Amino acid sequence: MSLNEVELLAAGADLLAREAAYLDERRWDEWVALFAPDCVYWVPTWTAEGTLTTNPQTELSLMYFAGRGGLEDRIVRIRSGRSPAALPLPRTTHMVGNILPLEKPNSERIRLRSSWTCNAFFPLMNSSHTFFGRAEYELALRGGVWSIAKKKTILENDRIPMPIDIYCL
Amino acid sequence: MGVLSARSYVDDRPADGVFRVHRDVYSDPELFELEMKYIFERTWNFLTVETQIAKPNDYITTFIGRTPVVVMRDAKGNIGAFLNSCRHKGATVCRFEKGNAKFHVCLYHGWAYDASGKNVSIKQRESADYPAAFDAENHDLIPIAKLASYKGLIFGSLSPDVPPLEEHLGDLKFFIDLHMEQGAQGMEIIPGRVAYTYRGNWKMQLENGQDPYHVDTAHGSFMAIAERRRKGQGNTAAQEQDWQKRNNVQIGAYEFPHGHTSVWHDVAEPERRAVYASLDEIKSRVGPLKAEWMVRMRNAVFFPNLQIADQIVPILRTFRPISVGVTELRSNVIGPIGEAPEKRAARLRQFEDFVNPGGYATPDDITVFADCQVGFGATGVDFLQGYSRGIGASQQGANEEAIEAGLHPVSSVKGHRTQNTETGTHAPFREWVRLMEAGMAGRKAYP
Ligand code: FES
Ligand SMILES: [Fe+2]
């Protein structure tokens, strides 16, 4: 791996770590700003035990937003103070690891996969739940900064016992 | 402890304008046991949709109450439904949610069944020294007592003593038609499924669909988002109704026999409904009356386990009681077979936005259900007061809209949107009392 590639992957890993940290620290505006305005944010469903949906235009997703507006909506909701599901807001800790390149990175595009867990404590129910899965990212260099152009999140434990939101994924 | 008579949990005195439900109905584990026995196991339950098992040897697993059931199409294409439990030692024979298999081999000792439920192999039978009495027994999967379909929806009963399905559905057929006749070539469940549990009694979701009163409080954040979207901000792809305009329309509810019910309301912006673009085609096929009703928002309940709702887009949502305080929900979005790609995508966005466990409505609903379940811990305060809105506008039999639609409800209610009638909850509770009473008295469920 060239020095340049190592640097690119480090930049990618840094972005993934910040994405997780901003969610945990509730730095919502900074979190949204990590995504490109025309980003795709996709959480497919499972069609049965072992198969994921592959096309969000013809099959059901847990979440699918074409554009950052969909993420902004979620933040409006969190901040509205009018959503019972987010009162009080669950406390979360994300761990992101096993970051590997999906292709040779270049100075315009980095594609990565990661594994993640999110431990969420729901004060209302006095109980914790671990959401876990993996994710695929496409990062793009926009105006000199790396942004998330595409994120596909796979939720492995999809029999969901708690309401889910962007901060659980 | 010990349970009281079924009637004592539902204070139902129409002459006095009283309808109250005791909170134990949601929280007493003994009542829950009786509900499984006397309701879920003694009446028709919704199982699945025919398009889910379209090909020979397709199968899907589900539950009637707590009873595991597998619905299969055999090699010849006939649909059967069986207890999903091996005749040998009881293990589930089909362990997957769905699939296609000519043979089902039990993973415990290897007994095998074909797609018609017939036992085709008992491992090492020849050397077993089985007695003649064993050979004389039937070893096939046990079929459930009754199985029937209406408009592609498959229903089953563990008890043989139930009325014929169509008689049991009665006027609920009209509301099923409004769902299943939207597509010229029929309707299908769109692939992908969401399954989630909430910490509350199964009747809370059943009632929630009949509860327009909660929408502007529990879903207040959603209205703020919808408002923003109208200014072009946020996820505008998920076209939503204008929740303000929505407040000026008419609302109504019908009570039907056998616990079925439906609330409806008119829409201020019909052009935002998924069905709108196909309305001309639909009118030519099913007539203007049904087409008009398809545009109306509807939320019907097939008692006890299915919500047939079209608040945003048509959905089928099943409730599966796990315990007195835990319920599993499965929501399916249905769409016309052969739907144009851009319409299919728009339908999906609307469903995900509102109905998903990560959408804008459901997480709030299931959180407040959990709040209620905690609140039911307050004992000694007897009856709840959430069933009275709209009683003052209730009339026996059919009202104008019902007569026009050829419906024969037990009672009808109509009013301004903010009447937010709660009378849609009455039919399920009246049937709850009837079935529980019959069960406790040792009578048949259907005389
Ligand atoms: S339990 Fe099925 S073969 Fe023994
Ligand atoms: Fe709701």
Brief overview, please?
The complex is a heterodimer of chains A (169) and B (447). Chain A is 24% helix and 41% strand.
Topology, element by element:
The complex is a heterodimer of chains A (169) and B (447).
Chain A: H1 3-24, H2 28-33, E1 35-44, E2 61-66, H3 69-80, E3 91-101, E4 109-122, E5 127-142, E6 145-155, E7 159-160
Parallel strand pairs in A: 1-6
Antiparallel strand pairs in A: 1-2, 3-4, 4-5, 5-6
Chain B: E1 10-13, E2 18-22, H1 24-27, H2 29-40, E3 44-49, E4 58-64, E5 67-73, E6 79-83, E7 98-100, E8 103-105, E9 112-114, E10 119-121, H3 132-136, E11 146-150, E12 153-157, H4 165-169, H5 172-180, E13 187-189, E14 194-198, H6 202-208, H7 215-218, H8 220-230, E15 250-255, E16 261-265, H9 279-286, H10 288-295, E17 297-302, E18 306-310, E19 314-323, E20 326-336, H11 341-354, H12 362-375, E21 383-384, E22 395-396, H13 400-405, E23 411-416, H14 426-440
Antiparallel strand pairs in B: 1-2, 2-21, 3-12, 4-5, 4-7, 5-6, 8-9, 9-10, 11-12, 13-20, 14-20, 15-16, 15-23, 16-17, 17-18, 18-19, 19-20, 22-23
Helix pairs in contact in B: 2-14, 5-10, 9-10
FE2/S2 (inorganic) cluster (FES) binds at residues 86, 88-89, 91, 106, 108-111 of chain B.
How would you describe this structure to a colleague?
The complex is a heterodimer of chains A (169) and B (447). Chain A is an alpha+beta fold and 169 residues long. Chain A has a single domain, classed as Nuclear Transport Factor 2, Chain: A (Roll), CATH 3.10.450. Helix content of chain A is 24%, strand content 41%. Chain A has helices at residues 3-24, 28-33, 69-80; strands spanning 35-44, 61-66, 91-101, 109-122, 127-142, 145-155, 159-160. Chain A has a 6-stranded mixed β-sheet with strand order 2-1-6-5-4-3. The radius of gyration of chain A is 16 Å and the shape is globular. Chain B has 2 domains: 45-148, Rieske Iron-sulfur Protein; 170-440, Naphthalene 1,2-dioxygenase Alpha Subunit, Chain A, domain 1, CATH 3.90.380.10. Chain B is built from 14 helices and 23 strands. Chain B has helices at residues 24-27, 29-40, 132-136, 165-169, 172-180, 202-208, 215-218, 220-230, 279-286, 288-295, 341-354, 362-375, 400-405, 426-440, and strands at 10-13, 18-22, 44-49, 58-64, 67-73, 79-83, 98-100, 103-105, 112-114, 119-121, 146-150, 153-157, 187-189, 194-198, 250-255, 261-265, 297-302, 306-310, 314-323, 326-336, 383-384, 395-396, 411-416. Chain B is an alpha+beta fold and 447 residues long. In chain B, the strands form 5 sheets. In chain B, strands 13, 14, 15, 16, 17, 18, 19, 20, 22 and 23 form a 10-stranded antiparallel β-sheet that branches. Chain B is globular. Chain A binds chain B through residues 43-49, 53, 56-67, 69-70, 72-73, 76-77, 80, 82-86, 124-125, 158-161, 163-165, and chain B through 96-99, 190-197, 199, 218, 220-222, 224-225, 228-229, 233-237, 328, 333, 341, 344-345, 348-349, 351-352, 356-358, 360, 362-364, 366-368, 370-371. Strand 7 (159-160) of chain A pairs parallel with strand 14 (194-198) of chain B, so a sheet runs across the interface. Bound molecules: FE2/S2 (inorganic) cluster and fe (ii) ion. The site of fe (ii) ion has 6 residues of chain B, from loops.
